[in-house]
Design brief:
- Two copies of one chain form a homodimer.
- Chain A is of the alpha/beta class.
- Chain A folds into two domains: 106 residues, Aspartate Aminotransferase, domain 1, CATH 3.90.1150.10; 244 residues, Aspartate Aminotransferase, domain 2 (3-Layer(aba) Sandwich).
- Chain A has twelve helices and 13 strands.
- Chain A has a seven-stranded mixed β-sheet with strand order 2-10-9-8-5-3-4, sandwiched between helices.
- The relative contact order of chain A is 0.18.
- The mean pLDDT of chain A is 97.
Chain lengths: 369, 369
């Protein structure tokens, strides 16, 4: 017979999930209620309002998709694209590549704008590409989890709008840990995840769509290829006057996100972003003192995801295994082009504390000598 | 500032979610670990094995999709169908209709086999339809949540296989409450939900695919239209030797399902199914004594989902609202063709107890006089 769960607790310092606050774990264990219960509708309304505040947007359709961040990505593309449309995707890491894969599965024509992994997309690249084609949308990753690059958005946003396209942004790793100003930056469609700087468990994807995006959806000639992610129906459940049933909402996960968002707003966005920056600097100082090099140039470094080069002669798998098994600290391996070449150290949400930084620095000193 | 969650507890006697065992709520609050942590891989392995036992199958690819039951439905169709394929769908309620919608979104040719709502599909209907066409798959709902009909499967399964098609079955409401013999009944692909007779929270979809289904997938000429639900990648995370990252697994929900499945198997499948039947009979006796009529003929009634006709002159919305507000009992309204005509009373998993039956009968007597 299978035994009751009793995993050893970890310090989660990888690319997500991050540590979850005990109050969020407590909220998860709130007794079940129905997905059409007026009490649950009220909870959904509160989640929407707190998500709007976090995205810094007034968009009515700001809610959570009932699946993880990658499903949020897919939601944007399957609702905004129809077969034959053209989509431009900026790629400088794993998640830009994932966007390309999804765009092609939508039957859309893909135009890639590539930058080297570890560097941001230069506005000039987008400008050049927009001169040669007229895409329906341009998509970009704000915080590339595979490389630790923070992508400046405002200049590119203006170019995209001048070209008459929609601007779609991945904020999976940035939301809750640094500024994400959806309205001010002219983002038309945006998605994120719950398990990074929001510090809820993985399982839901916060999303927001402005009226221009909704108009594009209303003008579709074809049905959205995914039933589960079809916003024309999901909207009715989240924002409709009658709150019509679409699928059974993931009640417990919505409880968790509700509490995690409460904690975010109790701390305050500015204080939270400042904390992420402060602990990043502490980690940076400590690692540089040990001789580590960061992958990304200083001005484009994400505070919550630190990609560092693995020194020559270090057996990276052994070090990660010892961190996990002897110190209960999880850090992330390199992904894609960077497999075996970098470590990814997350300081996200509840995992962004001076104690986390001290624990990791101490353990690395123990192991590397 | 939004307040901490504190919803009034309910007795969940609708079409799902059902009541959740306190041990499952406790499992939900287990501290977070990473989706690639060896401890989590072990938990996934245990979930797969317990899910196999529940589906009564040896299929290696038996796991949970990271989204609700409707996403499990979509997973089956998007992976098994390619544009231009033909799919036959049996329809006698809302969920058969949903299957049709998804089949069309896959670009497949749809052949419907319709029976009146509240009645099962007759094997002869399928036979006739199979004589006129040669579909790639035939899909049917085992337990139609919108009507309370239990669909016999073995005779139809044989016809489907004789015609060289795959047999795809929706067991969202039946799994964990009555027999679902995937291997013995020749089911090639099957999906379910966690929030019905398994009594975990909503949010995941147990699925199982046999080798014939996997071969069909391996022979695809086109990519699966959904990235998130593409089993060729999901398989590598759940059953591959290297457990390759696809998306971030919904850790807390997997914890919950792990505990809920443990409880299912501690009770034992036969005892559990017998309990569902016993409480169904108690409810039936009580409701018939009050003059209520069941929608479905006795031999096709689901033990866990009881559709009863709303008596003339009864304001159904007022009664349901009073049950919820005064007694904290949730029952389900009619869906689709049956809106305003039937109530749906669920006795699923933890909600299938004599106390639940007594509470509901007592409250209905209070309200209806």
């Amino acid at each position: 017979m299978v035994k009751e769960l009793n995993p050893r607790a970890r310090f989660l310092m990888g690319p997500g999930p991050s540590d979850v606050n005990p109050m969020v774990l407590k909220a998860l264990s709130t007794p079940m209620i129905g997905h059409l219960d007026p009490q649950f509708i009220e909870i959904m309304d509160e989640v929407m309002e707190m998500t709007r505040q976090l995205f810094q947007t007034n968009n009515q359709l700001t809610s959570v998709i009932s699946a993880t961040g990658s499903a949020g990505m897919e939601t944007c593309f399957v609702n905004l694209l129809e077969p034959g449309d053209t989509a431009m995707v900026c790629v400088n890491g794993v998640f830009g590549n994932r966007m390309c894969d999804i765009v092609e599965r939508c039957g859309a024509k893909l135009i890639r704008v590539d930058a080297p992994w570890g560097e941001p997309i230069a506005p000039g690249q987008v400008k050049d590409a927009l001169e040669k084609s007229k895409p329906k949308l341009v998509a970009i990753v704000h915080a590339e989890t595979s490389t630790g690059v923070l992508q400046p958005l405002t200049e590119i946003s203006k170019m995209v709008h001048d070209a008459g396209a929609l601007f779609v942004v991945d904020t999976v790793t940035s939301l809750g840990g640094t500024q994400v100003k959806v309205d001010e930056w002219g983002i038309d469609a945006v998605y994120s995840g719950t398990q990074k700087c929001i510090s809820a468990p993985p399982g839901l994807s916060p999303v927001s769509f402005n009226t221009k995006s909704l108009e594009i959806m209303d003008q579709r000639k074809t049905k959205v290829q995914s039933w589960y992610l079809d916003l024309s129906m999901i909207r009715k459940y989240w924002t409709g006057a009658k709150r019509a049933y679409h699928h059974t909402g993931p009640i417990s996960m919505v409880y968790a996100v509700h509490e995690a968002l409460r904690i975010v707003h109790q701390e305050g966005l500015e204080a939270r972003f400042e904390r992420h920056l402060r602990n990043h600097k502490k980690l940076l100082d400590g690692l540089e003192a040990m001789g580590f090099e960061f992958l990304v140039a200083p001005e484009y470094r994400l505070p919550m995801l630190n990609a560092i080069k693995i020194p020559n002669g270090v057996d990276e798998q052994t070090v990660r295994a010892r961190l996990l098994n002897e110190y209960n600290i999880e850090i992330g391996a390199g992904l894609g082009d960077f497999a075996g070449k970098v470590w990814r150290i997350g300081l996200m949400g509840e995992s962004s504390t001076p104690n986390h930084v001290n624990l990791l620095l101490g353990a690395l000193k123990d192991i590397l000598g």
